[in-house]
């Protein structure tokens, strides 16, 4: 499968275009790095690729067809700040199982302790919470994962554990991954290809 943004333009303010005629693609099984200085529109492109933002011009397609408007998108976006991506009034078990039901083996592999499932999001550290957000996105229906500074806020051990699970899952399921990061070393280590926006 191929996720492709073709000749995409986007502006929050019509006088200040952010993306101009950008073409970017990621195929199943690829791990593509997306780099650019801060403010250049990496997160914006991530949101366009995942269908969160509609491009003003150009198209986003999977194998030539527009992104499906289903409830669970085959393109999943993971943010830098997990606390902004969860409902603070839901317990972790409900949050994790919203879209699919990971097995206890999946939960263990992601380093989630069963007792955390009964906690509120505010009762977990950023790294613990991000493990939930990542596992929640790894549904069998996920074909592409956009990781926007996914582990930037986390300590190196948590960072390594989460990436190991994601890359293993991507390999087993032939998923395409986009790694948005300003950490050059991380990109060099993880990616099969790097695109400079
Ligand atoms: N919702 C928004 N409304 C207005 N401007 C925004 C919005 N989100 C981002 N921007 C601006 O768009 C530009 C690109 O942002 P972003 O895509 O987050 O860049 P990056 O991820 O590369 O740092 C920045 O100048 C940012 O201030
Ligand atoms: Mg960003």
How would the blueprint of this fold be written?
Layout: E1 2-10, E2 19-27, E3 31-35, H1 42-49, E4 57-62, E5 65-66, E6 75-78, H2 92-96, H3 104-109, H4 126-137, E7 144-148, H5 156-173, E8 176-180, H6 184-190, E9 193-196
Parallel strand pairs: 3-8, 3-9, 6-7, 7-8
Antiparallel strand pairs: 1-2, 1-4, 4-5
Helix pairs in contact: 4-5
Bound molecules: adenosine-5'-diphosphate and magnesium ion.
Adenosine-5'-diphosphate binds next to helix 1.
Throw out a few tags for this protein.
binds adenosine-5'-diphosphate, binds magnesium ion, alpha/beta, Rossmann fold, 9 strands, 5-stranded parallel β-sheet, 6 helices, 197 residues
Tally of structural domains: 1
The amount of beta strand, in percent, is 15-25%
This entry's quaternary arrangement is single chain
CATH superfamily: P-loop containing nucleotide triphosphate hydrolases
The number of helical elements comes to 6
The largest β sheet comes out as:
5 strands, parallel
Rg, alpha carbons? 16 Å
Mean pLDDT: 96
DSSP helix fraction: 25-40%
How would you spell out the order of helices and strands? EEEHEEEHHHEHEHE
Alpha carbon gap, first and last residue: 22 Å
What would the principal axes of the Cα set say about the shape? globular
Bound molecules: adenosine-5'-diphosphate, magnesium ion
Helix vs. strand class: alpha/beta
Number of strands: 9
CATH topology: Rossmann fold
User: Strands of the biggest beta sheet: in what spatial order?
Assistant: 6-7-8-3-9
Which stretches are low in confidence, meaning pLDDT under 50 for 5 or more residues running? Answer: none
CATH architecture label name: 3-Layer(aba) Sandwich
